[in-house]
Amino acid sequence: MTHDQDAELARLRAQVAELSRPRRTVRSACAAVLLALVLVLTPLAVVAAWTASLLGDTDRYVATMSPLVEDKAVQAAVGTRAGHALTEHLDLNALLQQAAPEDRPLLARALGRLGTPIEGALASLVQREATAVVASSWFHTFWTDANRRAHTTMVKALTGEGGGAVKLTDDAVTLDLAPVIDQVKQRLVDRGVTIAAKIPEIHTDFTLLESHDVKRVETGFRLLQILGNWLAVIVVLLAALAVWLARRRRRALTAAAFAVAAGALVLGLLLVLARAFYLDKLPAGVSPDAAAAVFDQLTRFLRTAVRSVAVLGIAVGLGAWLSGPGRRAAQVRRLWSAGIDATRGAAQDIGLRPGPVGTFVHRRKRWLVWAVLAAGGLALALWSYPTGWVVVGLVLAVLFAVSVIEFLDPRPAGPPGPHPAGAAEDRNPPEDR
């Protein structure tokens, strides 16, 4: 090419670059906005998915609430509430007059053994029997069965329709303890206090959740119920669109993955702050220990989801970063390849060679790696309620499978470059990576 042609080519390149710069700037700005949305919407997506699973899975709800029956603070709170409700209805003088003459000596002996004033003795006996009821196998069965039967009612309560054993008042979600009180009354009768049989049915509430903002929570709950798992899909689509719009797609994928992880960690922090705020605002008469146990159990699977999403985001982000052209990433890949090469060499020294399998792996290496990644993603998608450890296990399994593929490839690893185990190959020129 002549000097004039070179100059004209340089001018045209500069003109093309100048014309394309605003478009690239707009695309980059849009990608940045989308990544910010991913960060903001990730906590809401996790909560929405948790809400949908709590509403749609009775077994999951029962698994959430059942461990509370073993909690000493909850047992103490339920026993105290039931005992106090029953004691308040024990008008001793009136009940003694109603007792049959043949029952009075037995009642006197039962109370006399306690060695305290008769009112205190009766209250102590009632509380002791209430404590025995909530520690019995009957209460374990009652709690599990009641939560299973009440699941539909709980859904109605949290969606504002109310009714049933679980009720939504202006400031609390409560559970009626009438069956527990009936059991206490029966135990009193069995102990010789037959006068307890004359007590009418008593309804008293045990507070599952109490807040002056229940109605506001109810509105948010219904909104999250509508969004369900769709919000998580929206977050993934926004992240994919941000990567597509970005000039440096590998870097955008890394940022999107870390944004998802950061959003999950923010939600975890908000849960810690919400727990402290909730316990600090409890009304008088509510057991803080029991309230803490209920809060922890209700948010148990939500905290598990937070850990799972955070681990997954970090794993994808690290994978995208390690597959890039950065110096540190190349050093890590070089170290990994050196270890595989050394292992392959040691195996060949003792006569272990891949043979035709190695040839096949070498020809189909890229497809095999992508198949492993797809299998890991599919396993994660099909896993019901994966925990953080499940995500870690799947990531390690994928890394192990990719290492085996590298080991079976008979050709030594070349100069470190972008590895297919991370993100998709960037289509942008090197200066845009």
UniProtKB/TrEMBL annotation:
Keyword Protease tagged: no
Spell out the residue ranges making up region: Disordered.
412-433
Q: Where are the transmembrane segments?
A: 29-52, 226-246, 253-278, 305-324, 367-383, 389-408
Q: Does the record bear Protein biosynthesis in its keywords?
A: no
Q: Which UniProt keywords apply?
A: Membrane, Transmembrane, Transmembrane helix
Per UniProt, the ranges with Basic and acidic residues bias are 424-433
> Any idea what this protein is called?
Integral membrane protein
